[in-house]
């Protein structure tokens, strides 16, 4: 095992500089993903870990109709926030479904956004064929046993799943990621933050080396909107989604006036179901509309033996969450 230099950053500027100056350096926050990948699975090999855990990047503030969530806020802290509970039930439900209490007290919001796939082949260094680890080597999951894998945004080069629960409602809500580097900062919509594999599965997002996630900005849902998160999994706790859906719906006199829908457990990235939203808006809030939306959302899936079941399961998940938030 290679040595890893550990450095505790004094402030955000020094943290950015310490990572930027070494190509294999990485930030360390709650550590729930980085320690797994570097110390347990040994599939990433950082030369330096820059601990940002003591930086003043914690807390949730409300400005008008937006929440500004600092990146080091833990999942448990965000789930306990009164505004989140009252105005963003889909976010709270996703947080509570996403991990055990122990992990929620350690895992940070920024880290959750940047978690790596749970694909067994990516996390096993003895598997040679993984384009995400070694570009050009192939994709073992396409040829071997696949079940916890993606059917949307996938292709022959990679079917690795983005496993975050939290990101599903966040993409539905048009959340924005705030970034900082040595040259200043920028804001990136979460729907544009992640990259589907294409022919470069090793590139997962638009982050530049040395950029630090400092905040996530989330619009609050308008008054009268009903929302929720549904996670379908093999067991009731501490399990990743087979399929999931986050929905926020406004209904006026039986007609859907506004709709937001995010999908999890099916995409190589947190999936915004724009086609389904277009079907929903202006249509009656009934089973026929919900099924039409589900069909629109899961159009042209890429399946392999072992993932075909997700097509119908995802559609049923969508119908159920839409029924739940409109009745």
TrEMBL record:
SUPFAM superfamilies: CO dehydrogenase flavoprotein C-terminal domain-like (SSF55447), FAD-binding/transporter-associated domain-like (SSF56176)
Pfam families registered for this protein in UniProt: CO_deh_flav_C (PF03450), FAD_binding_5 (PF00941)
Alphabetical UniProt keywords: Oxidoreductase
Domain FAD-binding PCMH-type: 1-223
InterPro entries: CO_DH_flav_C, CO_DH_flav_C_dom_sf, Diverse_Substr_Oxidored, FAD-bd_PCMH, FAD-bd_PCMH-like_sf, FAD-bd_PCMH_sub1, FAD-bd_PCMH_sub2, Mopterin_DH_FAD-bd
MF-aspect GO terms: FAD binding; oxidoreductase activity
SMART domains hit by this protein: CO_deh_flav_C
Keyword Oxidoreductase: yes
Annotated protein name in UniProt: Xanthine dehydrogenase YagS FAD-binding subunit
Species in which this protein is naturally found: Asanoa ferruginea
């Amino acid at each position: 095992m290679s040595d890893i230099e550990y450095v505790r950053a004094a402030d955000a500027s020094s943290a950015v500089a310490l990572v930027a100056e070494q190509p294999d350096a990485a930030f360390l926050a709650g550590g729930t993903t980085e320690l797994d990948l570097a110390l347990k699975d040994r599939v990433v090999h950082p030369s330096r870990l820059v601990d940002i855990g003591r930086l003043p990047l914690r807390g949730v503030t409300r400005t008008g109709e937006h929440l500004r969530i600092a990146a080091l806020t833990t999942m448990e802290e965000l789930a306990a926030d009164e505004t989140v509970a009252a105005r963003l039930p889909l976010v709270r439900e996703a947080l509570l479904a996403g991990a055990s209490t122990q992990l929620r007290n350690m895992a940070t919001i920024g880290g959750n956004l940047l978690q790596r796939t749970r694909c067994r082949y990516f996390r096993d260094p003895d598997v040679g064929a993984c384009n995400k680890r070694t570009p050009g080597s192939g994709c073992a999951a396409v040829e071997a046993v696949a079940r916890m894998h993606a059917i949307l945004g996938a292709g022959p080069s990679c079917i690795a799943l983005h496993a975050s629960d939290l990101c599903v409602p966040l993409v539905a809500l048009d959340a924005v990621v705030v970034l900082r580097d040595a040259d200043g900062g920028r804001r990136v919509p979460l729907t544009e933050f992640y990259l589907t594999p294409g022919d470069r599965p090793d590139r997962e997002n638009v982050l530049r080396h040395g950029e630090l996630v400092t905040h996530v900005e989330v619009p609050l849902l308008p008054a009268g909107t009903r929302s929720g998160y549904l996670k379908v999994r093999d067991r009731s706790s501490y399990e990743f989604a087979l399929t999931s859906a986050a929905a926020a719906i406004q209904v006026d006199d039986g007609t859907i006036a506004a709709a937001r829908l995010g999908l999890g457990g099916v995409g190589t990235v947190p999936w915004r179901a724009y086609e389904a939203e277009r079907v929903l808006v202006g249509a009656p809030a009934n089973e026929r509309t919900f099924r039409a939306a589900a069909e629109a959302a899961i159009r042209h899936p890429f399946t392999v033996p072992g993932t075909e079941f997700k097509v119908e399961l995802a559609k049923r998940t969508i119908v159920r969450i839409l029924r739940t938030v409109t009745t």
